[in-house]
């Protein structure tokens, strides 16, 4: 099957210029790095601006865009840049009443002064949740790989963690262990009807809390603190509750869907509920039957009272594997689902951010007719090459740790990742490292796609690194 698909659809041909393309990609990456006060601190979002409009912010340093940048720098042992980036973000952590503990979505130096964006300057004026949740994860990756435990124990890092935990773990009107956020609060930064508890945010919260625990344990090793012990107990319990909640309410297979469709509704009282969110069988979409097949499974996009979001989100599912939210058996079910639906998720430019797309009427109603999220474009079914390394790392990490549990499946997955890598190798340099791709198969460069997009370039370099250079660097993702 894998062979048939590659010949008829991807038509992947190895490139004899692999080394040259990788070398050029590294040169582009070096150009994205910027200095503040004479020191390299991170990458701009994109190298080239398609317009002279000075209001474009692609020249700013975005925390979410710098996630793969910092991970790549860690693999290259360029720890000083990572440390400077983490320290600057820490200095910019908000102390204002409404946003206390929030890390900036982006920052830029203007007239010698650092200016952070906490949502007050963004389109839609939405504060990013993912930027804050990624910071402890990146901090732990850096501390653990570099051995700079003094930085992890430092007062500034420990204070930053406590400010963030005060923000995400405070009492709310919601009784479940999830973090509620508005639409546009993470990588899906345009209206896509993802308000509530979107998968990516909840998985990031899980990784964030585990990283905070690891960093707090460093401090605890040096001195006993009753308050720190209490915070560790609370955070550990939250991680356990959140992981159980995601597996119970977000994980679906053909079998669980058949049960869900037959569950009772309108349940009230203290007895055990089989349908806690009062999901009516009519909301289960018909496309799920073929999508799931018999042995596939995935984490749905959102669980909301009466309105589960059954869309597949690539980043949230990939991170669930990397952070250990999904146990090994469930990870293999996810891999089977991707193999079964590879013509949708990989197609001509791996990989699609969200499936299925919203069609015209639904797009109008739920996105506010956002032209960037036109059907099969941007976040509405668009293809983002920057996502491949997340999924590729999840597959390779699983193969490294559990490859003998299903050798045939993992060989197919390794072949899929290799084909997808060659697909990007052959296309991205010709298409100027575009941000995203449009259309049902991701053939066309996105209508509003930026060229020489940093996370497209560095995502390709990470995939190259894990496939060709150092398999062992995958271990950093085990939090």
Automatic annotation (TrEMBL):
Q: What is its EC number?
A: 3.2.1.26
Query: Which source organism?
Result: Prochlorococcus marinus (strain MIT 9301)
- InterPro entries per the UniProt record, alphabetical: 6-hairpin_glycosidase_sf, 6hp_glycosidase-like_sf, Glyco_hydro_100
Q: What class of enzyme is it?
A: hydrolase
**What's the protein name?**
beta-fructofuranosidase
Give the matching PANTHER family.
Answer: NEUTRAL_ALKALINE INVERTASE 3, CHLOROPLASTIC, PTHR31916
Please state which protein family the record places this protein in.
Answer: Belongs to the glycosyl hydrolase 100 family.
Question: What does the record give as the reaction this protein catalyses?
Answer: Hydrolysis of terminal non-reducing beta-D-fructofuranoside residues in beta-D-fructofuranosides
Q: Name any Gene Ontology BP term.
A: carbohydrate metabolic process
What is the superkingdom listed in this entry's lineage? Bacteria
Q: What Pfam families has UniProt attached to this entry?
A: Glyco_hydro_100
Molecular function per GO:
beta-fructofuranosidase activity; endo-alpha-N-acetylgalactosaminidase activity
Arranged from A to Z, the UniProt key words for this protein are: Carbohydrate metabolism, Glycosidase, Hydrolase
Q: Coiled coil located at which positions?
A: none
């Amino acid at each position: 099957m894998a062979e048939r698909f590659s010949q008829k659809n991807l038509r992947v041909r190895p490139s004899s210029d692999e080394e040259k393309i990788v070398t050029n990609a590294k040169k582009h990456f070096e150009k994205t790095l910027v200095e503040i006060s004479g020191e390299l601190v991170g990458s701009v979002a994109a190298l080239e601006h398609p317009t002279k409009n000075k209001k474009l912010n692609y020249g700013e340093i975005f925390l979410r865009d710098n996630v793969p940048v910092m991970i790549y720098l860690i693999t290259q042992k360029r720890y000083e840049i990572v440390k400077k980036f983490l320290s600057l973000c820490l200095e910019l952590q908000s102390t204002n009443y409404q946003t206390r503990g929030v890390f900036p979505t982006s920052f830029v130096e203007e007239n010698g002064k650092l200016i952070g964006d906490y949502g007050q300057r963004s389109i839609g004026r939405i504060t990013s949740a993912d930027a804050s949740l990624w910071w402890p994860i990146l901090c732990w990756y850096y501390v653990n790989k570099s051995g700079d435990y003094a930085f992890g124990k430092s007062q500034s890092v420990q204070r930053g963690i406590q400010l963030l935990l005060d923000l995400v773990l405070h009492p709310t009107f919601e009784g479940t262990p999830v973090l509620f956020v508005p639409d546009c609060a993470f990588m899906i930064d345009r209206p896509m009807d993802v308000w509530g508890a979107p998968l990516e945010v909840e998985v990031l919260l899980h990784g964030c809390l585990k990283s905070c625990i690891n960093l707090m344990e460093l401090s605890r090793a040096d001195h006993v603190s009753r308050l720190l012990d209490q915070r560790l107990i609370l955070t550990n319990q939250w991680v356990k509750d959140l992981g159980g909640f995601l597996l119970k309410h977000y994980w679906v297979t053909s079998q669980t869907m058949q049960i869900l469709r037959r569950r009772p509704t309108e349940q009230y009282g203290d007895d055990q509920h089989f349908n806690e969110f009062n999901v009516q069988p009519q909301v289960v979409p018909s496309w799920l039957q073929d999508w799931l097949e018999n042995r596939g499974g995935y984490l749905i996009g959102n669980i909301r009272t009466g309105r589960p979001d059954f869309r597949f989100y690539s980043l949230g599912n990939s991170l669930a594997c990397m952070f250990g939210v999904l146990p090994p058996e469930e990870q293999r079910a996810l891999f089977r689902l991707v193999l079964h639906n590879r013509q949708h998720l990989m197609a001509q430019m791996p990989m699609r951010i969200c499936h299925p797309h919203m069609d015209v009427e639904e797009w109008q109603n739920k996105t506010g007719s956002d032209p960037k999220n036109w059907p099969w474009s941007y976040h509405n079914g668009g293809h983002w090459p920057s996502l491949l390394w997340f999924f590729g790392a999840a597959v390779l990490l699983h193969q490294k740790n559990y490859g003998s549990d299903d050798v045939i499946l993992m060989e197919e997955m390794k072949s899929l990742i290799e084909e997808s890598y060659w697909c990007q190798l052959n296309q991205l340099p010709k298409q100027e490292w575009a941000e995203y791709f449009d259309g049902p198969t991701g053939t066309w460069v996105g209508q509003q796609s930026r060229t020489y997009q940093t996370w497209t370039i560095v995502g390709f370099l990470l995939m190259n690194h894990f496939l060709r250079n150092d398999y062992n660097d995958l271990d950093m993702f085990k939090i």
